[in-house]
Amino acid sequence: MRSDVLIVGAGPTGLVLALWLTRLGVNVQIIDKAAAPGTTSRALAVQARTLELYQQLELADTLVAGGVHGSGVNLWARGEKVAHLPIANIGEDLTPFPFMLVFPQDQHERVLIERLAAAGVRVQREVELLDFSEQSDHVLARLRHADGSEHSVEATYIAGCDGARSQVRQQIGSGFPGGTYPQVFYVADVEVSSPALGGEVHIDLDEADFLAVFPLAGAHHARLVGTVRGERAERAENLGFDDVSDQAIKHLHLVVDKVHWFSTYRVHHRVTEHFRHGRAFLLGDAAHIHSPVGGQGMNTGIGDAINLAWKLASVVRGCAPDRLLDSYEAERIGFARKLVHTTDRVFSLVSAEGRWADLVRTRLAPTLVGVLSRSATARAFLFGTVSQLNLNYRGSALSQGAAGHVHGGDRLPWAVAGYEDNFASLAQLDWQVHVYGAAQPGLIDFCKGFGVALQQFDWQPEYQAAGLVQNVVYLLRPDTYVALVDPTSNWETLDRYFSARGLKPLERRHA
């Protein structure tokens, strides 16, 4: 059996990679050693940038319809609400999805599996990667099935989406430096009777165990994410819900009526040394893992998958040289390191013990949140950071030029003028050019001859407000990030960009 890409691991990262590659015409095989998808969820938040990218495959509306829009974050101390950060429509001028969506990972995976099956790809369950070797033009992987039988498969590339204990990572010998938090994390799916959660997140800041409460669909359905520490953490394997400190639960005035399920896990803060080794790639938890603070983990893995998918498709289909794949590590590893560092510092703050730590957490933090809640600029920056709208690839070899506030490597600013949404064309999953104003005749001819789609938008004030500049050429990558910003609007600049990197559109288009 031969495939273009063998994907090891069928969590959200592996499923998204398989789905994008399949849509881009790449033959994939996806395996997972688990007998069935998970039924418990650690990841809950789906950030705005993920939903924007999901629009490319018409996935966003399905998740939005089934999830809860987080409308605010409440901080509690000593049994009282001490700060409130409103986040409902906090980014309404920035994105079509100006909210944090709460949509549990198990439901999320089911949506992806169903969409992948509709595209003709089935996850091969109870199949374990034993090892693989790299040949001149492919990898040869040895797999084991539930009945103990083994067979080998060939693939042009292999993608390790197989979690913190990644067999792919171990095989390529990439280190996984970092550490493990002393606390044990737990997640519980519960029914509660208490003052209405109101679609908001509630976090207890007292010196008791850390606890965050996330609203789920249903008036009294919620997910608790918390920690246990000290002596209880040493017997993590035998912990039950009754072992969780009820002090934090009482601080939030929660009455837990029913526990649907309860699960514990250890959390690490690590980033692997390499995201690529020859024909092997690491994505998601196989490449980076950190505390759940900020709801970044699953979204970052999905970002890895979409970043790599279009590059693999370009190389497999002869539209780019193999060196394009080096940009995957270059673009993603720096963000992963920064994210792990940031979430580690925040979690260390909220979980630290001692008099001064308690003072910072219960007095200083609420004051800071109060200041943020009164500043529109601060709220927008915070939303842009947590939602990953601010993530950019400005330092990438694929990024070039600038005009106004937009640089090569930035996410394309979102703007709606009248009935025209400039994100509508992004579903093409290919290179395209945007011009807000008038495109020069030479540019029109080049785009038509080269086979890259050209989108022209009549200049409107809304585009200027979004940070776009009139008549400038914006070349967009298949993952909707800006590759080239050319204020001269000269077709030759576009030609040189593609020629210098050996790139071609994935599909030949005719304007």
Automatic annotation (TrEMBL):
Gene3D superfamilies: 3.30.70.2450, FAD/NAD(P)-binding domain
Domain of life: Bacteria
Molecular function terms from GO: monooxygenase activity
Keyword field contains Oxidoreductase: yes
UniProt KW keywords: FAD, Flavoprotein, Monooxygenase, Oxidoreductase
Pfam families: FAD_binding_3
Span of domain FAD-binding: 3-342
Cofactor(s) it depends on: FAD
The protein's name in its UniProt record: FAD-dependent monooxygenase
Organism field: Dyella acidiphila
